Amino acid sequence: MKEIIITGMGVLSPAGRTLSGFWDTLLAGEAVYAPIAEFVKDPRYRVKIGARIDRQSLPLEKHGEDVGLSAQFCIYAAKQALKDAGLDLSGIDPGRIALVVGTTMGEIDAEESITKTCCSGGQPDAALLRQLPTGQITRTASLALGISGYRYTVPGACAASNYAIDLGKKLLDWGYADIVLAGGVDVFSHVAFAGFQRLLSLTPDLCRPFDKKRRGLVVGEGCGIVVMERAGERRDALPYGTVCATGLASDAYHMATPHPDGDGEIMAMNLALERAGLKPEQISYISAHGTGTSQNDATEATAISRVFGHSTPPVSSIKSVLGHSMGAAGILELIASLLMMKHGLLIPNRYLEEKDPRCPVNLLSGNPAPCRVRYVLSNSFAFGGQTSSVVIGGAE
Amino acid sequence: MNQTVFLTHAVVRRQLNGSTELKDRNTDRLSVLCIETIADLFGAGMPCTNVPLFFGSAFSSLKSLHEFNAVCEQNGPNTVSPGKFPNAVLNAPSCRAGIHHGITKPIYNLSSGTASGLDALELAMMHIRSRECEHALVCIAEEPSPLAERMGQKPDFICGSVYLSAQPAAASIDMTHTGPAYGTAVTVPQQSTDVAVDLLNALEAGEDVMQFWYDCEDRMTGLTIKTTGRGK
């Protein structure tokens, strides 16, 4: 079976709208989240911060009334990824190009507008109602991109991106597609914000994954799309790296709480390593799910230490800078990991002041660390106990 | 060579039996329906119950999401129920079913309008064909809601569950997108669960060969069910 390579990447994030902008933000290490104007004066919001893309300057094209905001994010990131890959789609059968996009909340922007209108007794806009079905994300994005191969919208909560990568790899491995655009998307959701606020999962200030004084996550948004293809089939393809293997599992424990022993996380990591044919010591870096909540980080660190032993690879979470972009988190972290490989630098946990003794792993802090990054294991864990790990390898 | 996929069993449920002991009292109705339908399927004696779950739904938990958001909108974000928040996430029905039945394998959620059921079925078949797994559980579910109605759709309260296997069973199943022969009857599904109903009917009819053609979400899909004479 041929290697599956990633040849192009596109991002739309509060941390940047280009790969170089995204990388520069990660290097600078300044949090991109800030007080949200509409929450600041509203006493019903105990927490005021979130990570949002400035809507005023959002460079989105109009693609018709049926195209919701999540789909628009996807189109933007996908076009960027295709350009980055140097792919001219005109010479490729559009039926052999697939689009696989993970999401947590779907077209939540449309849903929230509709609900607001309904609650005030109004009649929701017909275009918003057409945008709302979750499957519209890949349907409308495929149309806008001019592709007609397999399209999957994958509502896999915060593991959705890794599920999309898994399915994209399988479509290529099994011969159902020649090119796959895969990634994840979520736009800022008031519903998610309210839910996490009531679960006491939101930090009021900084997101500090694995810190002893961490207080929670920051709700964010964004989209990342990568171009995946089989190695050796396109002469001018320049890979960022390879998708070595995926490991997907479920912890069968609770909708909102991870299994206390990290059973699901351990299964996903072990499966990914086994399928990649790698020993734990061959992993150069772990891109942690690292949300900054007390329970997630302790469980994840415990699981990592059980898989990797006392001497774990360096571990960090870029959510300390980006916040949690929900269904897009996994793909943005995968893209960040590929950029770390390219630049030979590991991005540390920002705002990590005092390591939590309940997190017995090799936590990166301080400045970006030079490192030859050969293999990365990237974790994404989700509501519903969906656990996922992806192993990627650097370009030779 | 590709592995043949066998259709072991199919069940369809349209109402709750009301006697399921739930681990979480916040579980929404659609999730309970999925839990009970899968229980029906497993109760018929499937070879293995810890199998990958492929869940298809056009609307999934949009009803719960809309209700949660309406509380947020009307009474404020500080009044929403934290216990009901997970119901507002689109993987809730499949994951609640997975948790209830102790499934530790992957749970794939797919949403593609009326093709959601066909996509879940096809993805499960792909996994068996390529020997990625030996058995697969397909669950397809919808529920009516004011929101769906505003979209001009009236899905039933319905869940279909189908068990697929590499082990020879009642029927073999195959899928194609090459298009039907001239004059073949083609169905435009009204909702994603139609395919589960068709598979149940095919198993009950027990005819040697049954074919279904669907025209939905911009493509043709053909399903062929061939009776093997086993497992009747």
Supply database-style keywords.
heterodimer; A: 396 residues; alpha/beta; 10-stranded mixed sheet; 14 strands; 19% strand; B: 232 residues; alpha+beta; 8-stranded mixed sheet; 8 strands
Q: How would you sum up this structure, described in words?
A:
The complex is a heterodimer of chains A (396) and B (232). Helix content of chain A is 33%, strand content 19%. In chain A, a hairpin with a 4-residue loop joins strand 13 and strand 14. In chain A, helix 3 packs across helix 6 and helix 9 crosses helix 10. Chain A is globular, with a radius of gyration of 20 Å. The relative contact order of chain A is 0.18. The two termini of chain B are 28 Å apart.
What is the distance, rounded to the nearest whole angstrom, between the alpha carbons of the first and last residues of chain A? 18 Å
Order of helices and strands of chain A: EHEHEHEHHHEHEHEEHEHEHHEEEE
Low-confidence stretches of chain A: none
Strand order of the largest sheet of chain B: 3-2-4-5-1-6-8-7
Main sheet attributes: strand count, strand direction, barrel closure of chain A: 10 strands, mixed
Largest sheet, strands/sense/barrel of chain B: 8 strands, mixed
The fraction of residues assigned to DSSP E strands of chain B is: 15-25%
- Alpha-beta classification of chain A: alpha/beta
The overall average pLDDT of chain B, rounded, is: 95
Number of strands of chain A: 14
Give the termini distance of chain B in whole angstroms.
28 Å
Radius of gyration of chain B: 18 Å
Q: Element order, helices and strands of chain B? A: EHEHHEHEHEEHEE
Helical stretch tally of chain B: 6
| Share of residues in helices of chain A | 25-40%
The gross shape of chain A turns out to be globular
Rounded to the nearest angstrom, the radius of gyration of chain A is: 20 Å
Q: For this entry, what is the oligomeric state of its chains? A: heterodimer
- Percent helix of chain B, as a range, is 25-40%
Largest interface: A-B, 66 and 60 residues
Count every beta strand of chain B, where a strand is a DSSP E run of 2 or more residues: 8
